[in-house]
Amino acid sequence: MIREITDTTILHNGVHMPWLGLGVYKVMEGEEVVQAVAAALRHGYRSIDTASLYQNEGGVGQGVRESGINRNEVFITTKVWNTDQGYDKTLRAFEESRRKLDCGPLDLYLIHWPVKGKYRETWRAMERLYEEGQTRAIGVSNFNIHHLKDLMQHSRIKPMVNQVEYHPRLTQKELHHFCRENHIQLEAWSPLMRGRLLDHEVLTRIARIHGKTPAQIILRWDLQHGIVTIPKSVREDRIKANADIFDFELSQEEMTQINDLNRGQRVGQDPDNFHF
After folding, report:
1. What amino acid positions are annotated as catalytic residues?
2. Which positions of the chain have pLDDT values less than 50?
3. Which residues are in the NADP-dependent oxidoreductase domain (predicted)?
């Protein structure tokens, strides 16, 4: 049972990864992202998820450094963008991300999207980075089952994490099962479906029972499914509220009711049909 914000999942290579993190997609570089990271760390978060695409790696690193928290206690994730994929370009992109973050070895490096014809070579570069100790773990993002099977067939190291769109309208049950069977940790981006579910009658009813918000119910649902979750906010009150999910538990009936909201509905791009 996940009872503390400091609780972690253990990746298949033995690295501990916090169950809850702060996402910083579309958070502005500079003061906004520095303050968001500072607020998260102040309220107990120990995981920050960024990407080269977000153009805020510098602010993330600054926020971590200025927090006064030991760098070894903070789990930092970033990602290689699609135009930087391929063996040599990935190695260069990693160095640029690490320079901007300025926080020493990375904790987790992800392939942002499965770019056809490139992700195998990208992964080969990431295997090298991992084996050289430049990142503690490597993984992928937005990979469907067939992408994972292909990558695993042509690689030496299995991904440790798969970060995908995951929320009550998109439960990705088959993908979740596949990842669990292959010891790949599933991680949810856009866990709150960009706010579109926060007034849903099922979630508001369950929230009233527990004295929580619909957002807290969704995030607790993630944890009880064994999903790492990274809600995004720049407001300190919401960052704090999103972390207040460790003092209650959803019943199996409530979990099933939320599961039944699934419609296979995305707010982001389809990994089998994206054009960037």
Report:
1. 54
2. none
3. 26-262
